[in-house]
Each structure stands twice: as C-alpha cells, then as structure tokens.
Amino acid sequence: MTTPVTIDANVIVALVDARDKWHHDAVVLRDALLNAGAQLVYFDCVINEAIGVIGRRTEEQKRSDQFEHLLDELTTMIPERSITWISVAVQRLFQEVVGLCRSHQGRLNFHDALMALACQELGIRFILSFDEDFDEVVWLTRIADPVEVQKLHQLTD
C-alpha cells in the first residue's frame, strides 16, 4: 500500500525554482519519498499559492521574464489531472478552518488550515513542508528531512 503525502507550497516552489534556497533539499526529499513508494498529493489551494509566490518572487527579483518558464515547470511537474481539488470544501469547512487558524494564533494561514483539515478528512497523515507551524497539527507528521522519510514506514506499519 502506498502512503499518501501532501506537498506544501514552499516545497513546490523550491522544486521548480532552482534559485530557491530550499531547491536542493526539496529535490532530495521528493526523490526520497518517491523511492519509498509514497503517493504525492497536490492540493489545488497549494498550486494556487505556489503560482502566486512564483509570480511575486520573479517580479520582486526583477526576473519576470522567467515566470512563464517556472509556471511551465510547475504545470509539467503537476498536471491538472494530478491535482486533488479541496477548495470546493471551503464553504462546508469554513468555520473549522477559521477555528484552526484561531487555535494556532494565526501561525497557520487559511490555506494551511484548509490543507490540514483536508488531510484529516482524507486520512493523509504526512505533509512535506519546510513550515514548522504544521508541527502543531496533531494529526499530521511533517517531513522536512530525508531521514524523516523513515517515519512513513514506522507510522504506517
């Protein structure tokens, strides 16, 4: 059985942008997960966030001419058919999302809270992220180091 692992926007951005400080780490982590047989899960709100970050970053770094290339990299890496659509649940989960943001004193933003709740509903126990705020979500285990890929086997056996 493959273990589902959702991917946070900071990892996706790092994967497509070789100039990102986390690029090497993100590639190593993704490859370790794939070698461990993990099923990578990409939420639509994460793709939304990643595209926004890439656009803002390329503009701020005066390399807007690279935006289209990075967007192509992202959509090639994660084709539309590979996206898990959770934003349709926003209206149903709105109060829970706001409550989770509130209970974490804003450390989890709206999309992060939505992702956490979607993981809970979908039975996804792992998230690949460089964002330590996910460490406070009791039903998620954050993976941020290739050594931690071993958690997949330890916690799913």
Task: Give a structural overview.
The chain is of the alpha/beta class and 157 residues long. It is built from seven helices and five strands, in the order βααβααβααββα. It has helices at 9-16, 23-35, 44-60, 67-77, 90-103, 110-122, 150-156, and strands at 4-7, 39-43, 83-84, 126-128, 141-143. A five-stranded parallel sheet has the order 3-2-1-4-5. The chain is globular.
The amount of helix comes to 40-55%
Strand content: 5-15%
Mean pLDDT metric: 93
SSE order, as H and E?
EHHEHHEHHEEH
Main β-sheet description: 5 strands, parallel
Number of domains: 1
CATH superfamily: 5'-nuclease
How many strand units?
Answer: 5
As for the CATH topology, it is Rossmann fold
Strand order of the largest sheet: 3-2-1-4-5
How would you describe the oligomerization state of the chains in this entry?
single chain
Amino- and carboxy-terminal Cα gap: 10 Å
**What is the tally of helical segments?**
7
Q: Would you state the CATH class?
A: Alpha Beta
- Pick out the low-confidence regions: none
Rounded to an integer, what's the Rg over CA atoms? 15 Å
Q: Architecture, CATH level 2?
A: 3-Layer(aba) Sandwich
Task: Tell me the overall shape.
Answer: globular
Look at the helices and sheets and give the structural class: alpha/beta
Which key phrases capture this entry?
single chain, 157 residues, alpha/beta, 5-stranded parallel β-sheet
